[in-house]
Structures are given as structure tokens and as C-alpha cells.
Design goal:
heterodimer; A: 576 residues; mainly alpha; MetI-like fold; 2 domains; two-stranded antiparallel sheet; 2 strands; 73% helix; 1% strand; globular; B: 352 residues; alpha/beta; D-Maltodextrin-Binding Protein, domain 2; five-stranded mixed β-sheet; 14 helices; 43% helix
């Protein structure tokens, strides 16, 4: 193919007939603006006005002077810092183990980390309540059983600041893990080879070459983990109240209780937004440096460290770590689903199917929530993927002037925490001209916006892997941009499209922080239903719904993986 | 005009409407209505209704299923959360012109005062209510009817606390031996607890709560959650919560028992109302009518173990008669005027 039509950099589009590309692209840019700019404008407006609409900074003054707000701010900061540190301490070595050692079952470990990645943090928190509530928690019961300790004593108490840090770390560490493991996967072995040739021992090489190479990824991971922990709503919403404190996200949410104080909620949201933007800038600077560390790599195989007898020890350690986010919580949920009393282990006289029956046949909210969740998941995934496809096409092929703005807008929501976006959208769409509150549209907008950055990044890297020559050929033969995109590029990107679609779908299913601000009784989704059930402590029903949610999620992930496996071969053929 | 009234109405943007509804509040009691075949027919045509309630989820669903069985073709969607959250939800929906609720049942009479003044409620007086309910249990204009009478007693886990060691009064809970062993629900989520908090603060003073907060109390949201926590054995004693659930769990063989505190047990009556802008007006009326019939009220007594305002329901043994419980005085107007202040003070004391 490349012989038939040599790729020329100067293959500018020729204008035969009417090319509708530009207007279409402009529409997409306008959509992005509406999605992102409007809610943030309202947020800023509310934060700086009083009830009568006059300008004021009183809301911010109250934020820093009133202990009701200052305490949650400080708590959140401490929480996020500690979680980030723990995530790095655990995830970085694990990332190295799977990427650079001969530890057995490396693929399985990666898969299990993915499992903790897709577990909704609020579900993890509820599962850990079942495990480590000081008196009724399964692990504490086991502890008393084994040690014969008094009924009052406990080993773990999840209703504490430390407990919350632990649970947040459980579901945040995959961010660091993925960054570190991927970096080490991609870092070529040349430098390590050189070190070995010069007589460095395995450990010397690891210490002096590999670890410094991975350090930017670790640092970036720490920032991302900090960000996640700071803006998380799910886990604090479950654990912070029984523990007797607020985080900034639960405080923002409580400000919408009657009588609502939207101006304070807006003021409390802005610092989160500003901090997120700053941290992401920092992350960008850190990761930007990674470029030089891998320069000159000619994709030689990464050097694998032989652990010898240590490999089984390391595997045991990794599995012990994975007990916390995956094995133990899933077991607790499974147990509670089939037990008459959530805190008792299932036995012959304790086994019941009543919980399943209740959730699927008696609970009248289930069917509506499931329907809403599926409709939103499918629509958001489809809209998000199409938007991401078009935008990344424009930015990688530099199709219109101002493509950079488009790329920026598509990445911008990464800096908007879910709950902040929820507050902004609430302001925007509960008033004319766009009254969307009470419809699924407002949730669709929220989910598409939140999914956009990740979807865009995935599609963009997919585009980079497809050389433009095929498109150019199509355009030289007279096709418009859109037709070339539709007939040539999209089929080549099919597997990436499917992967992105699944990714967004899974993200929507587990989303709580924006949904909690935007739902009404008729537009309730599964995550909100679980949150409502938690209010009244219906743990068995939660466990059934939660497991059901996980089954859907894993089916979709498995589907994406199998398609990707098959599709890769096909794509390589097409590009080659 | 109270502070709370003006604030809420401004927020609703319905100030004028509320005032006018207030001004013409001399309307006569409406004619009592039966479940006529015409009403049933019209309700079946609508085929569905949305029931927002603060009842415990299991009973709310049980009640709906009984209604659906009696009137096939009408599906009830239960929207359950704590009464204060139900109230917030309806307020948020109505201020965005979303009229989704047909019938609401809360555990806080003050909500009905506000809905009434906003002009949101439809007058509807079922025949059985006019015949068998004491006048204090329904609004003279038929805008709301007391569906159930709740009490918020103390309760404990009998495996963790011996009967003779169990607390007898609210004051007893301040004993250092209860540090870290108490669980309590929150007035910003639960209507029962809003009333209980108001009543305890009025009778024992806020300094009671200040002392209680030093006992490392585990804070949960709903009044229906505290009985579950002591039944699981997570905490030994519940400071407040739904007494009827404790009785239900006890009758199911779980290790819990109830204590009616010496100072008096806080009551909260749970009223229901049909909304004027209900999307299914006939189904709403039929449900409201049936829910206060002897049949449904007996289910409330037998299954839910709550107290019924219906004069013809038969008490089921195993539960102390309401007349035999020393009750604190319920004061909806007081709660109405002070709810915001109660929440604020409470949050300051308990930090959540």
C-alpha cells in the first residue's frame, strides 16, 4: 500500500464540492463549550453572590472562618495526603513486580488490580463496614474467636479517620499501579543492560537505573492519588458520618439539605476545582520529564529481574495486598447476600434467598434504577465515544485551525471533580432556558463530560497509531474528511472504539458523586439506590445490588478484553 | 411569621401562593369520601402512583404489595428515604416544577404545615377517617391525615447488655460505661429524630446532648438504621430510633429489647398527604383512602408493629399500649419554627 501511494506531508485536502466537515466540527466545539463552560460559570457566579444576587466574598470568608467548613477542609487535606503516600508505598513496588520481575501469576495480579479499579468506592466502603465494623465486623469477630479477647475489644475500627484512609487507599492505589507498571513496560532495557555489562549487580541496576527511571511515574501517580482521594464522595459518604466528621465533599452534599445553601456549596466547590487544576499542572510537569528518560530506546526487551526463591514470597505479599480491595470485600458482600443476618457467616440454618427475592421482586425501585442505569450507560458510552472519536481526529490530524482549543476542552473535565460538576450542572439546568433537572438528560451530560478526558486520551493514542496515509489516499480519491473518517479510519480503530465504549459504560455504572446531586425520584440510578439503602442500613439488599453491579461491570470488561485480543491481530494486518 | 416560613417560601418562589393559602384558611371540612367504583375505575386508568415515604423500606413495600393485590392494575413505586430527605427531595423537585409525587408520608408533622402553607396539598377526607379517627389525627380541611404514630425509645442488644444493667433513662446513657457503645440517628435525615431531638432538647436541655456527644456516639442517618445496628451487635444501645423495628426484630428472635426512658419517650406522628399537582390524582386518592382503611391500618399494627390512629384496629399483644407509655409532648409548631436551629446546633455538637 505504502508503495502505491507514497505518503507526502504536503497532502493538503482538496476542495471538490461541499465539505461539511468544518460546520460539523464547529458544532462539536460548541457542544464541548456548553458542556463545560456553562456549569462552571454558574458555579463561579453563585460563589460570588449573596441571596439577592449582589457581589460578595462573604461565602469564602465563612468557608475559612467557620469551623464547620474549615475542619472538613483540613480533614480532607490530611486524608488525601495520607492516602497518596500509602498508595505509592504499596503500588509502586507492585507495579515493579509485575513489570520487571519473574514473579509468577503476573497477569493475574494485573487483572485483580483492574478488579479493584472498577469496584465502586462506595461499595468497597460498605463491604469494609461488613468486615471491620468494630463489633459486628467479620474480621473483628474472627479476631475475638481466635484470641478469646473480650466482647468489647476489636482489632480494626473502620469508623475512624484511619479506617477511611485505608478504604480510600484500597480503591485509589490502582491509579499509581497502572502508571508505574505501564512506564516500566515501556522503558527499554538498554540502560539496564549497560549497567549489567559494566558489572552492576541486579540490585544495583534496580536501585541506580530502574527506580530513578520510574520515579516520575511514581510522583505523578502520587498526585493523581491525592486528587482522587480529595474529590472522592463515595467512601466518605459511607464512613465519615459514623466516624463523626465531614470531608469537603460530604459537606458540599449536606449543604443541599433543606434549607439548601447553594452559595456556600459553590464557594466550597471552587477550592477543589482550583487545587485540582494546580495538581494536574504539576503532574503534567513531572510526567513531561519522562520523555528524556526513554529517549533512544529501540524497544529492546525490558530486563527481567530474577527473584529466585523470593518470587513466591513476593507473590504472597501481592496477594495479601489484593485481599484488601478485592478478595475480602467481595467475600463479605457475597456472604451478606445469602445470610439472614449480614454480620453472621452463612451456614445451613442461616442461608436465605430472601434478600435476592426482596431486591428483584419486592423492591419497587430496582427495575426503574436498572433501566435508568442501562439507558444512561449505553447513551453516555455511545455519545462519549463518538465525541472523543471526532475530537481526537481533529487534534491528531490538525484538521481545523484552533484544534488545540478543542483538545484542551476535551481534557479540561479531568480537572472537574464529579461533585463539583454535579453542583455546577444543578445550577445550570434547574433554571430557564434549559430546565433539564428531573430528566435523564442532565445525568447524560454529567456522565459524558466526566468520561470525556479518558475517552479522548484513549482515542487520541489510537489515532496516533494509524498512519494518515490511508486517509490521505481516500481523500485524494475525492472523499470528504467525514467520509474518509467514516470509511477508512473508524473501521481501523474499531477495537479502540469498543474499548473506549466499554470504559465509559463501566465508569457510568459506578458513578455516584455527580449523580447524587442530580437525581430525582424518577431518574434514580443504581449507585444512588445503593446509597439510599445505606441510609436505612439495608446491608443485605445493598450486597445483592452491589454484586449484581459488579457482575455487569466484569461482563463488560471481559467483553472489551476479548474483542481487543481478537481485534489487535486484525488491526496490525491492516496497518502493516 | 416565623423565620423558617419566610425562608422556605422565598426558596420555593411561592411566597405569594403560600400567603394566600394561609389567608383563606377558613375552608370547611370537605365531605368524607368512600372508595367508590368510579374512583377505582379512574385510578386503574392511571395505573400507577408514586409514594414518597419515610416508613421502613420493608413495610413500605409490603403495604404497596397489599394495595396492588387489592387493586390489580395499579403499580405503586415506593420512594423511601428519611423524612427530612423526603422533604428536601419534594422541595427540590417542586422548585424545578417537577410534580412527581402523588402521596407523601413523612414522620414530621412540621412538613405538612409547610406544604399546606405553600398550597401544595389537595383536600381529601376518606370516609373511614371521618368516622373512626380522633379529630386530632387529621387536618380539619382534609389536607393531611396521621397514618401512624411512632415512638423513639431507647433499646439495647440483650447479648451485650444484661437486663439489670440496661439503662433506664436518657440520663443513664451519660454513664462512662456507655462510652463507645451508643448509636444514634440524625435529625437532618430522620423526621422521627428531628422531633425526638427537639423534644429532648426542650425537656432536658441542650447540655444533655453536649454531654452525650462526649460518649463517642456512633452517628448514623435514619431512625430505621439504629435498630439494625444493635441487632447486628455493632453497638450495645441505641439512643433513639424506630421503636417498632426493635419490636419486630425481637419478635423475629433477634437479641434486642426496648426501654421506655423514665424522662418520657419522644413521640412523632407520621402524616400522609395527597399533592394537588399529583400526576395520578385518582390513584393517589384511592391509595390515601385505602392506607387509612381498617384493613391497611391493621396491617400497620400486625405487621409493622406501629401504633394506629384508627379507632377500630385491634391491638396485637407483645407491644406496650401507647396509653401506658409516658410520652414527651409532641409540638409540630415548635419543630416547624426551630428545625433549622435544631439541625445547626446538633451539627455543632456532634460534628456531623
Amino acid at each position: 500500500m505504502t508503495i502505491a501511494i507514497p505518503a507526502t506531508p504536503a497532502s493538503k485536502p482538496r476542495k471538490f464540492g461541499i465539505d461539511v466537515s468544518k460546520p460539523v466540527l464547529l458544532v462539536f466545539a460548541a457542544i464541548l463549550c456548553v458542556l463545560i463552560v456553562m456549569p462552571l460559570s454558574w458555579l463561579v457566579y453563585y460563589a460570588f453572590t449573596d441571596k439577592n444576587g449582589a457581589f460578595t466574598v462573604a461565602n469564602f470568608y465563612r468557608l475559612v472562618s467557620d469551623a464547620d467548613f474549615l475542619d472538613p477542609l483540613l480533614t480532607t487535606f490530611a486524608l488525601a495526603t495520607l492516602s497518596a503516600l500509602i498508595c505509592c508505598a504499596v503500588a509502586a513496588p507492585m507495579g515493579w513486580l509485575v513489570a520487571r520481575t519473574d514473579m509468577p501469576l503476573r497477569r493475574t495480579v494485573r487483572l485483580l488490580v483492574t478488579a479493584s479499579f472498577v469496584t465502586p468506592p462506595f461499595l468497597g466502603a460498605i463491604a469494609w463496614e461488613l468486615l471491620a465494623a468494630p463489633n459486628s465486623g467479620l474480621l473483628n469477630q474472627l479476631y475475638r474467636e481466635i484470641t478469646g479477647a473480650s466482647p468489647d475489644s476489636h482489632l480494626l475500627n473502620i469508623y475512624t479517620f484511619t479506617g477511611l484512609v485505608f478504604v480510600i487507599s484500597c480503591y485509589t492505589f490502582p491509579y499509581v499501579f497502572v502508571l508505574v507498571a505501564n512506564t516500566l513496560d515501556r522503558t527499554p532495557g538498554d540502560l539496564e543492560d549497560a549497567s549489567a555489562i559494566l558489572g552492576g549487580s541486579t540490585w544495583d541496576t534496580a536501585r541506580r537505573i530502574t527506580i530513578p527511571l520510574a520515579l516520575p511515574a511514581v510522583l505523578a501517580g502520587a498526585l493523581v492519588a491525592f486528587l482522587q482521594a480529595m474529590t472522592l464522595f463515595g467512601s466518605p459518604a459511607i464512613l465519615a458520618m459514623p466516624a463523626g466528621f465531614h470531608t469537603i465533599t460530604t459537606k458540599i452534599w449536606s449543604l443541599f439539605q433543606f434549607p439548601p445553601k447553594p452559595e456556600l456549596a459553590a464557594a466550597a466547590s471552587l477550592p477543589l476545582l482550583v487545587l485540582t487544576v494546580m495538581l494536574l499542572r504539576a503532574e503534567h510537569m513531572v510526567l513531561g520529564r519522562r520523555g528524556y528518560s526513554v529517549v533512544g530506546g529501540k524497544n529492546s526487551e525490558p530486563r527481567i529481574v530474577r527473584l529466585g526463591p523470593w518470587r513466591w514470597v513476593m507473590l504472597t505479599v501481592a496477594m495479601l495486598v489484593l485481599m484488601c480491595p478485592v478478595f475480602l470485600p467481595y467475600f463479605a458482600l457475597l456472604n451478606a447476600s445469602f445470610s439472614k443476618i449480614a454480620s453472621h457467616l452463612v451456614s445451613l440454618n442461616n442461608f436465605t434467598l430472601q434478600n435476592l427475592h426482596f431486591v428483584f421482586f419486592e423492591l419497587s425501585a430496582t427495575s426503574l434504577a436498572l433501566r435508568n442505569t442501562f439507558i444512561l450507560g449505553i447513551l453516555s458510552a455511545t455519545c462519549g465515544t463518538v465525541l472523543a472519536l471526532v475530537i481526537s481526529y481533529v487534534t491528531t490530524r490538525k484538521a481545523v485551525t484552533g484544534y488545540r482549543v478543542l483538545g484542551f476542552l476535551a481534557t479540561a473535565p479531568v480537572a472537574i471533580p464529579g461533585i463539583v460538576l454535579g453542583v455546577g450542572l444543578f445550577f445550570t439546568y434547574t433554571r430557564p432556558p434549559f430546565v433539564l433537572y428531573g430528566t435523564l438528560w442532565i445525568l447524560l451530560i454529567a456522565f459524558v463530560t466526566l468520561a470525556m478526558p479518558a475517552a479522548y486520551q484513549q482515542m487520541q493514542s489510537a489515532f496516533r497509531s494509524v498512519h494518515p496515509e490511508l486517509e490521505d489516499a481516500s481523500r485524494i480519491l475525492g472523499a470528504t474528511r467525514l467520509r474518509a473518517l467514516w470509511q477508512i479510519t473508524a473501521p481501523l480503530l474499531r477495537t479502540s472504539l469498543i474499548a473506549t465504549w466499554c470504559f465509559v459504560f463501566v465508569g457510568v455504572i459506578r458513578e455516584l458523586s455527580a449523580a447524587i446531586m442530580l437525581f430525582t425520584s424518577q431518574t434514580k440510578v443504581l449507585s444512588v439506590l445503593i446509597y439510599d439503602l445505606n441510609e436505612s442500613g439495608d446491608l443485605a439488599a445493598i450486597s445483592v445490588l452491589g454484586l449484581f453491579m459488579l457482575i455487569i461491570t466484569f461482563s463488560v470488561v471481559a467483553l472489551a478484553n476479548s474483542l481487543r485480543g481478537r481485534g489487535n491481530a486484525r488491526r496490525n494486518v491492516a496497518i502493516g | 411569621m416565623t423565620r423558617r416560613f419566610s425562608k422556605r417560601d422565598v426558596l420555593k418562589g411561592a411566597g405569594a401562593l403560600g400567603l394566600s393559602a394561609f389567608a383563606v384558611r377558613v375552608a370547611a371540612t370537605p365531605a368524607a369520601e368512600a372508595m367508590t367504583p368510579a374512583l377505582i375505575e379512574a385510578a386503574k386508568k392511571e395505573g400507577k402512583l408514586a409514594f414518597y415515604t419515610a416508613m421502613d423500606l420493608q413495610f413500605a413495600e409490603r403495604l404497596s404489595k397489599a394495595f396492588e393485590a387489592k387493586f390489580p392494575g395499579i403499580v405503586v413505586r415506593v420512594e423511601r428515604s428519611g423524612a427530612e430527605r423526603v422533604f428536601t427531595r419534594i422541595g427540590q423537585e417542586y422548585s424545578s416544577n417537577i410534580h412527581a409525587v402523588d402521596v407523601a408520608n413523612t414522620a414530621d408533622q412540621a412538613h405538612c404545615i409547610i406544604w399546606k402553607r405553600n398550597g401544595w396539598l389537595a383536600p381529601y377526607l376518606p370516609k373511614e377517617v371521618a368516622q373512626h379517627f380522633d379529630k386530632r389525627y387529621y387536618d380539619p380541611e382534609g389536607l393531611n391525615i396521621t397514618t401512624r404514630i411512632l415512638v423513639s425509645p431507647i433499646a439495647y442488644n440483650t447479648n451485650l447488655v444484661k437486663k439489670e444493667d440496661a439503662p433506664k433513662s436518657f440520663k443513664d446513657l451519660l454513664d462512662p460505661k456507655w462510652v463507645g457503645k451508643l448509636v444514634k440517628a440524625h435529625p437532618a435525615y430522620s423526621g422521627t429524630i428531628m422531633n425526638a431531638t427537639f423534644e429532648i432538647a426542650r425537656d432536658l436541655g441542650w447540655d444533655y446532648f453536649e454531654k452525650l456527644a462526649k460518649q463517642k456516639v456512633m452517628q448514623v442517618q435514619s431512625a430505621t438504621d439504629t435498630p439494625k445496628r444493635i441487632s447486628l451487635g455493632e453497638r450495645a444501645v441505641m439512643v433513639d430510633g424506630a421503636g417498632y423495628l426493635v419490636i419486630r426484630y425481637k419478635e423475629r428472635g433477634q437479641p434486642v429489647d426496648i426501654i421506655y426512658p423514665e424522662e418520657g419517650t419522644p413521640p412523632a406522628t407520621g402524616p400522609s398527604a395527597v399533592f394537588k399537582a399529583a400526576p395520578n390524582p385518582n390513584a393517589a386518592r384511592l391509595f390515601q383512602n385505602w392506607m387509612h382503611s381498617r384493613e391497611a391500618q391493621q396491617l400497620l399494627v400486625d405487621w409493622a408493629r406501629q401504633y394506629s390512629p384508627h379507632g377500630q384496629t385491634v391491638e396485637k399483644p407483645g407491644i406496650r399500649k401507647l396509653a401506658d407509655i409516658k410520652l414527651m409532648k409532641e409540638d409540630p409548631e415548635g419543630v416547624f419554627a426551630q428545625a433549622d436551629a435544631v439541625t445547626k446546633r446538633y451539627t455543632e455538637i456532634f460534628k456531623v
